[in-house]
Amino acid sequence: MTDRPFSTASYRDAARALAATGQRIYANGWSPATSSNYSVRLNATHAAITRSGKDKGLLRETDIMAVDLQGQPATDGKPSAETLLHTQVYQRFPEIGAVLHTHSHASTVLTMHWPANMLTLEGYELLKALEGIHTHESRLQIPVFDNTQDIAALASEVDTAMAEGAISHAYLIRGHGLYTWASDLPSCYRQLEALEVLLAVELDRRRLSGV
Ligand SMILES: CSCCC(=O)C(=O)COP(=O)(O)O
Ligand SMILES: [Zn+2]
Questions:
Q1: Is the ipTM of this complex over 0.95?
Q2: Which of 150, 155, 157, 181 is most buried when burial is the number of CB atoms within 10 A of its CB?
Q3: What Å distances lie between residue 6 and 9, 18, 46, 86, 137, CA to CA?
Protein backbone atom coordinates (compact mmCIF):
# COMPACT_ATOMS: atom_id res chain seq x y z
CA MET A 1 0.00 0.00 0.00
CA THR A 2 1.13 3.60 -0.61
CA ASP A 3 -0.21 7.02 0.26
CA ARG A 4 1.61 8.54 -2.70
CA PRO A 5 -0.54 10.36 -5.29
CA PHE A 6 0.80 8.09 -8.05
CA SER A 7 1.19 4.34 -8.38
CA THR A 8 4.35 2.67 -7.12
CA ALA A 9 4.52 0.63 -10.32
CA SER A 10 4.40 3.70 -12.58
CA TYR A 11 7.08 5.43 -10.48
CA ARG A 12 9.37 2.36 -10.52
CA ASP A 13 8.89 1.86 -14.28
CA ALA A 14 9.57 5.55 -14.95
CA ALA A 15 12.74 5.51 -12.81
CA ARG A 16 14.06 2.42 -14.61
CA ALA A 17 13.31 3.83 -18.05
CA LEU A 18 14.80 7.25 -17.26
CA ALA A 19 18.01 5.73 -15.89
CA ALA A 20 18.46 3.57 -19.00
CA THR A 21 17.61 6.42 -21.37
CA GLY A 22 19.90 8.83 -19.53
CA GLN A 23 22.85 6.47 -19.85
CA ARG A 24 22.12 6.17 -23.55
CA ILE A 25 21.98 9.95 -23.99
CA TYR A 26 25.24 10.38 -22.04
CA ALA A 27 26.94 7.77 -24.23
CA ASN A 28 26.12 9.96 -27.24
CA GLY A 29 27.99 12.86 -25.64
CA TRP A 30 24.94 15.08 -25.18
CA SER A 31 24.96 15.25 -21.36
CA PRO A 32 28.52 15.96 -20.20
CA ALA A 33 29.65 16.84 -16.68
CA THR A 34 26.32 16.20 -14.85
CA SER A 35 24.46 18.48 -17.27
CA SER A 36 20.95 17.71 -18.57
CA ASN A 37 17.75 16.51 -16.96
CA TYR A 38 15.09 14.03 -17.98
CA SER A 39 11.50 13.40 -16.91
CA VAL A 40 8.45 11.21 -17.47
CA ARG A 41 4.85 12.02 -16.59
CA LEU A 42 3.41 9.76 -13.86
CA ASN A 43 -0.19 10.99 -14.06
CA ALA A 44 -2.21 14.20 -14.38
CA THR A 45 -0.54 15.80 -11.36
CA HIS A 46 2.96 14.30 -11.00
CA ALA A 47 6.15 13.53 -12.91
CA ALA A 48 9.33 11.54 -12.27
CA ILE A 49 12.51 13.59 -12.85
CA THR A 50 16.26 13.36 -12.37
CA ARG A 51 17.66 14.63 -9.08
CA SER A 52 19.94 17.66 -9.38
CA GLY A 53 23.63 17.23 -10.09
CA LYS A 54 23.68 13.54 -11.01
CA ASP A 55 26.26 12.06 -13.37
CA LYS A 56 24.11 11.02 -16.33
CA GLY A 57 26.60 8.39 -17.44
CA LEU A 58 26.07 6.59 -14.13
CA LEU A 59 22.36 7.32 -13.83
CA ARG A 60 20.48 4.85 -11.60
CA GLU A 61 16.86 4.39 -10.54
CA THR A 62 17.68 5.98 -7.18
CA ASP A 63 18.71 9.18 -9.01
CA ILE A 64 15.07 9.72 -9.97
CA MET A 65 12.45 11.37 -7.74
CA ALA A 66 8.85 12.57 -8.04
CA VAL A 67 7.56 16.14 -8.21
CA ASP A 68 4.14 17.67 -8.58
CA LEU A 69 3.41 19.79 -11.63
CA GLN A 70 4.18 22.95 -9.66
CA GLY A 71 7.72 21.57 -9.31
CA GLN A 72 7.49 20.68 -5.62
CA PRO A 73 9.15 17.45 -4.40
CA ALA A 74 6.76 14.54 -3.81
CA THR A 75 9.50 12.13 -2.69
CA ASP A 76 12.81 12.70 -0.87
CA GLY A 77 15.61 14.58 -2.61
CA LYS A 78 16.47 17.73 -4.52
CA PRO A 79 14.92 17.79 -8.00
CA SER A 80 16.65 19.17 -11.06
CA ALA A 81 17.28 22.91 -10.89
CA GLU A 82 15.37 23.07 -14.20
CA THR A 83 12.28 21.17 -12.97
CA LEU A 84 9.95 24.06 -13.89
CA LEU A 85 10.97 23.74 -17.55
CA HIS A 86 9.63 20.17 -17.44
CA THR A 87 6.47 20.72 -15.39
CA GLN A 88 5.54 23.72 -17.55
CA VAL A 89 5.36 21.39 -20.58
CA TYR A 90 3.25 18.81 -18.69
CA GLN A 91 0.88 21.52 -17.48
CA ARG A 92 0.39 23.01 -20.92
CA PHE A 93 0.14 19.75 -22.91
CA PRO A 94 -1.82 16.95 -21.15
CA GLU A 95 -0.89 14.52 -23.96
CA ILE A 96 2.85 14.90 -23.35
CA GLY A 97 4.48 12.01 -21.46
CA ALA A 98 8.22 12.79 -21.48
CA VAL A 99 10.63 15.74 -21.60
CA LEU A 100 14.37 15.49 -22.34
CA HIS A 101 16.99 18.22 -21.98
CA THR A 102 20.57 17.96 -23.29
CA HIS A 103 23.76 20.06 -23.50
CA SER A 104 25.32 19.04 -26.80
CA HIS A 105 28.30 20.57 -28.58
CA ALA A 106 26.17 21.37 -31.65
CA SER A 107 23.35 23.12 -29.77
CA THR A 108 25.88 25.20 -27.86
CA VAL A 109 27.91 26.33 -30.88
CA LEU A 110 24.87 26.98 -33.08
CA THR A 111 23.25 29.23 -30.49
CA MET A 112 26.44 31.04 -29.45
CA HIS A 113 27.92 31.68 -32.89
CA TRP A 114 24.68 32.60 -34.68
CA PRO A 115 22.70 35.27 -32.77
CA ALA A 116 19.29 34.55 -34.35
CA ASN A 117 16.32 33.82 -32.10
CA MET A 118 15.13 31.04 -34.42
CA LEU A 119 16.98 28.08 -35.90
CA THR A 120 15.43 26.47 -38.98
CA LEU A 121 15.94 22.84 -40.02
CA GLU A 122 14.61 22.24 -43.51
CA GLY A 123 14.69 19.53 -46.17
CA TYR A 124 16.15 16.75 -44.02
CA GLU A 125 14.71 13.22 -44.29
CA LEU A 126 15.45 12.68 -40.60
CA LEU A 127 12.82 15.31 -39.72
CA LYS A 128 10.33 12.44 -40.19
CA ALA A 129 11.56 10.99 -36.88
CA LEU A 130 9.69 13.84 -35.17
CA GLU A 131 6.10 13.33 -34.04
CA GLY A 132 3.64 14.56 -36.67
CA ILE A 133 6.20 15.15 -39.47
CA HIS A 134 5.70 12.94 -42.54
CA THR A 135 7.83 14.44 -45.31
CA HIS A 136 11.33 15.80 -45.78
CA GLU A 137 9.64 18.80 -47.38
CA SER A 138 9.09 20.20 -43.88
CA ARG A 139 10.48 23.21 -42.10
CA LEU A 140 11.10 22.90 -38.38
CA GLN A 141 11.54 26.20 -36.61
CA ILE A 142 13.23 25.95 -33.23
CA PRO A 143 13.03 29.11 -31.07
CA VAL A 144 16.17 30.18 -29.20
CA PHE A 145 15.74 31.74 -25.75
CA ASP A 146 18.51 33.62 -23.99
CA ASN A 147 20.02 31.75 -21.08
CA THR A 148 19.29 32.83 -17.53
CA GLN A 149 19.70 31.48 -14.00
CA ASP A 150 16.07 32.52 -13.33
CA ILE A 151 14.40 29.25 -14.38
CA ALA A 152 10.94 30.39 -13.22
CA ALA A 153 11.17 33.42 -15.49
CA LEU A 154 12.39 31.29 -18.39
CA ALA A 155 9.58 28.76 -17.85
CA SER A 156 7.09 31.61 -17.96
CA GLU A 157 8.66 33.00 -21.16
CA VAL A 158 8.54 29.55 -22.79
CA ASP A 159 4.95 29.05 -21.67
CA THR A 160 3.89 32.35 -23.25
CA ALA A 161 5.53 31.33 -26.54
CA MET A 162 3.80 27.94 -26.40
CA ALA A 163 0.44 29.60 -25.73
CA GLU A 164 0.99 31.68 -28.87
CA GLY A 165 1.69 28.47 -30.86
CA ALA A 166 5.29 29.57 -31.50
CA ILE A 167 6.93 26.29 -30.42
CA SER A 168 6.21 22.88 -31.95
CA HIS A 169 8.68 20.13 -30.96
CA ALA A 170 11.62 21.76 -29.24
CA TYR A 171 13.40 24.91 -28.19
CA LEU A 172 17.00 25.91 -27.58
CA ILE A 173 18.54 27.95 -24.78
CA ARG A 174 21.51 30.02 -25.94
CA GLY A 175 24.86 28.59 -24.90
CA HIS A 176 23.02 26.00 -22.84
CA GLY A 177 21.11 23.30 -24.69
CA LEU A 178 17.97 21.74 -26.12
CA TYR A 179 14.55 20.88 -24.69
CA THR A 180 12.20 18.49 -26.48
CA TRP A 181 9.06 16.55 -25.49
CA ALA A 182 6.79 13.84 -26.89
CA SER A 183 3.94 11.51 -26.04
CA ASP A 184 6.14 8.92 -24.32
CA LEU A 185 9.79 8.33 -23.47
CA PRO A 186 10.76 6.13 -26.46
CA SER A 187 9.23 8.68 -28.86
CA CYS A 188 10.94 11.51 -27.02
CA TYR A 189 14.31 9.73 -27.19
CA ARG A 190 13.88 9.10 -30.94
CA GLN A 191 12.99 12.76 -31.44
CA LEU A 192 15.95 13.92 -29.35
CA GLU A 193 18.33 11.68 -31.29
CA ALA A 194 17.03 13.02 -34.60
CA LEU A 195 17.29 16.62 -33.41
CA GLU A 196 20.82 16.24 -32.04
CA VAL A 197 22.02 14.58 -35.25
CA LEU A 198 20.32 17.28 -37.33
CA LEU A 199 21.87 20.04 -35.21
CA ALA A 200 25.31 18.49 -35.71
CA VAL A 201 24.66 18.21 -39.45
CA GLU A 202 23.41 21.79 -39.58
CA LEU A 203 26.55 22.98 -37.79
CA ASP A 204 28.73 21.14 -40.33
CA ARG A 205 26.66 22.49 -43.22
CA ARG A 206 27.06 26.07 -42.00
CA ARG A 207 30.81 25.61 -41.46
CA LEU A 208 31.27 24.13 -44.94
CA SER A 209 29.19 26.79 -46.68
CA GLY A 210 30.72 29.59 -44.60
CA VAL A 211 27.38 31.17 -43.64
C1 LIG B 1 26.42 21.24 -14.90
S2 LIG B 1 25.35 21.91 -16.09
C3 LIG B 1 24.46 23.25 -15.24
C4 LIG B 1 23.04 22.92 -14.83
C5 LIG B 1 22.22 22.51 -16.02
O6 LIG B 1 22.09 23.27 -16.98
C7 LIG B 1 21.63 21.21 -16.11
O8 LIG B 1 21.04 20.86 -17.11
C9 LIG B 1 21.69 20.24 -14.97
O10 LIG B 1 21.00 20.72 -13.85
P11 LIG B 1 20.39 19.67 -12.79
O12 LIG B 1 20.02 20.51 -11.61
O13 LIG B 1 19.23 19.02 -13.46
O14 LIG B 1 21.47 18.68 -12.49
ZN1 LIG C 1 20.65 22.51 -18.52
A1: yes
A2: 181
A3: 9, 17, 7, 18, 42
